[in-house]
Amino acid sequence: MDALQATVFFLVLLISCEINGAEDEEWKTATATYSKETDGSIITEGACGYGDLHKISYGKYSAGLSTILFNRGSTCGACYEVRCVDHILWCLQGSPSIILTATDFCPPNNGLAADYGGWCNFPKEHFEMSEAAFAEIAERRADIVPVQYRRVKCERSGGLRFNLQGDSRFFQVLIANVGLDGEVVAVKVKGSKTGWIPMGRNWGQNWQCNVNLKGQPISFEVTASSGRTLASYNVAPPNWQFGQTFEGKQFK
Predict the structure, then answer these.
(1) What Å distances lie between residue 36 and 5, 55, 59, 79, 128, CA to CA?
(2) 221 or 72: which carries more pLDDT confidence?
(3) How many angstroms separate the Cα of 127 from the Cα of each of 100, 104, 171, 204, 210?
(4) Model confidence at 207, in pLDDT bands (50, 70, 90)?
């Protein structure tokens, strides 16, 4: 084998190892239940602040996470692959999996035992799903099922979405539709008359700072949990209004 062949062989082996490593991410154990909604989906705002989940495309594949998974809202927007396992009566044949987005908090019920109603008690790992999504992995008549889950990359259509809120002294943005990590850990905002201003997490994926940016085009710099940073320049025009949503770039 000459030097060129050896180099090609090494590169192919390296790529193969990376692909296999991505596919063999560790599965963890948890439990899952579902919330009964009139249309089989979770459409309420939830603790991440996304509003109508159908309007921002999360829809029925949204989930409330127990305390340890929710991590005070830092995992809002993260994606999880979930499958029902180890229950011959309740799990669907072949253990099909679905991809869920973290959009809500499943609060603990310390008045009940963790194995009898206190599904989200600390340190239980639990997913509260929509009925429609639950029915894709398990029988609807099951109260609670054992599942396996793992973090996966989020596949999103379009760019990051920035919904602007606040007043003349208080500026807040809700960030949604985040690809890859799904999770936002830091945000900066910039007007045409300012430098980059760090924002603090208000709750969920709502970020805030005390600044008046009215009449200025607005740019955002978003950092994901992997450490990758994405800047979307002049996302909002100078005549933007509170309540409007604008689309920026997307993590790739």
Answers:
(1) 59, 20, 14, 22, 10
(2) 221
(3) 9, 10, 32, 17, 35
(4) very high
C-alpha distances out from residue 21 to 8, 109, 182, 224, 233, Å: 20, 38, 20, 21, 35
Q: pLDDT (tens digit, 9 = 90+) per residue, 21-53?
A: 334 479 999 999 998 765 544 556 678 988 767
* 191: number of Cβ within 10 Å: 19
Amino acid at 183: E
Question: d(Cα 61, Cα 210) in Å, to the nearest integer?
Answer: 34
**Alpha helices, DSSP H, located in the chain:** 3-23, 67-70, 131-134
pLDDT score for 210: 96
What is the torsion angle, in degrees rounded to the nearest 10, for the CA atoms of residue 202, residue 243, residue 191 and residue 49? 20
Residue 11 DSSP class: H
pLDDT tens, residue by residue, 93-107:
999 999 999 999 999
| Amino acid letter, 140 | R
Q: String of b and e for 131-167 (b: at least 16 CB within 10 Å)? A: bbbbbbbbeeebebbebbbebbebebeebbbbbbbbe
Tokens at 211, concatenated? 């600044």
pTM, to two decimals: 0.84
Classify residue 86 by its DSSP letter.
S
